[in-house]
Amino acid sequence: MKLIVTGATGLVGSEVIRLALRNPAVTSVVAIARKPVLAPAHVGTESQTSKLQSVVLESWTSPYPESVIRHVKDADACIWALAVTPTQSKDMDFSDVTAICYHYTMNGLSNMAAHVSKPFRFIYVSGVTVERDQEKTLPFLSEYRLMRGRVENAILDFAKQHDDHGVEVTVAKPGGIESPGRDAIAPPFASMLETFGHTPIVHLSELAAAMIDQCQHGITKDPLWGEDLVEIAQRALSPEDYLR
User: Fold this and answer.
1) Nearest residue to 197 via CA among 128, 113, 147
2) Could you tell me which of 93, 112, 229 has the C-alpha nearest to residue 159?
3) How far apart are alpha carbons 172 and 179 in whole angstroms?
4) At what angle do helices 142-161 and 104-113 cross, to 10 degrees?
């Protein structure tokens, strides 16, 4: 399986790359970013790290140049982990947040769909608080949560409109993400996540492994809530593959 990863230098993207390089079923990992991407630590052998192709993309809202297309061509799947977090968004103009979260994603999906294998599985990393229903009144982070919901709606609509392209999509919607080196998730925040009715906390390696498994074996449902991600990871992730 040839896998594309965006957001490759971030928390989720780097773990997706680490586990994909360790996975013998993944033959190639194409990391698209604004700067060169190196193999994460704790990957394994040189033969595993050699599967990584670092691709620099400067304009994320324009047609992809041939230098990028030749790496994207014939890919089997993409895990799109590029976005602006709620915390990051507070210090940015919201039009820039929207451009990165919405326009980068839709432009990327459109560019990829024209050059990839069929079926092509596209997994978008979102969050449990993101709302697809644009008529809802939300008590906090309303503008951000609804905008991310529009992204989810747009990629689902794209798949329906491009069924002949063999595009399959789903959205991963974890709550809090725990991983080594990060501060523990505060109890008040964990309690808030529980109000959404899904597993509130997912380990970073479980999130990454579950998405890779869906890319490899087929998308089983939309969305993928925390409990779905944990269930998939329990059969897809070996104890030694956890990031510790």
Assistant:
1) 128
2) 112
3) 17
4) 10
